[in-house]
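hi! just following up on the protien thing from before. the input was this:
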Amino acid sequence: MRFLICGLGSVGRRHLQNLISLGEKDLVLLRSGKSTMLDEELSSFPAESQIEVALERWKPEAVIVTNPTALHMQVALPAALAGCHLFLEKPVSHSMHRINELEEALNRTGKVCQIGFQFRFHPGLLHLKRLLDEGTIGEVLSTRVTWGEYLPDWHPWEDYRESYSARQDLGGGVLLTLCHPFDYLRWFFGEVEEVWGEVSHSGSLELDVEDMAEVGLRFTNGVVGSVHLDYLQRPPSHWLEIVGTDGTIRWDNADGAVQWWSTTTDAWMSITTPDGFERNHLFMDEIRHFLDLVGGNAKPACTLEDGIRSLQIVLAAHQSAQEGCRVLLDHDL
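and the predicted 3d structure came back as:
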């Protein structure tokens, strides 16, 4: 299979190396020339600078979309219209503009689209979902997520203020960049029906996007949730707590472990990640899954519709913050 990788920042290069590790050799690059990373590892691959030329000349079967968020549709839509399978990094885009065209193109060609929410492949979260599905803590009542990381520490080799995460014109901001919890909470609890939020520009990082956000969620099944996101915390912190009628479940990304207490055990139980587990395993598993999807050997773990729903939550949180109101989500969009 021939892959076209569109965007060679850190995540694009990660997918490139993982595809190579999985034995894929027919790889073409779409490059803007704006990456701040060294080029030596890319010199052996054919490269193009325009999506239309790349699609016409190389005719890839699958396209990996890893360019900045605000530019996703500029490559995803032509690739879908050309009949390519898509691996589309999260978030789907920075707005809903032209997303309906992308859906229509994929429906017309019958090609698959996987969204890059790699936490769906985390062994701890997979176990947590099994606990929920088994009713371990009874009826779920509420949930809370906290995720904060100091943005200047993410890519020490570049000026963080020039990264896509920090720039409004590239689709940055903490809500879009750290939108993973909106996806995995939907995975656990189903659709969100109401959103309220506050965003903050602390000024300490000299950004034109929000660097802190508090988001409230009400799910259709009655679960109430809250999500805190920021670019400011040191040391980094990413954890989840779920409270039910018969117990509590906790997960911490620092070690990947899951802890739970239930009325049946009357004690804290725990499970750790497998020996040797590291962060890149999530990305390896999601790209393996994409290969299985393209081969017709799996059902999608995270669909374009999933990506759209998470984007709607982010946009609703921005709307709520701007207008000072709660926002009801329209799931018919």
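The two ends are 34 Å apart (CA to CA).
DSSP finds nine helices and 15 strands in the chain.
cheers
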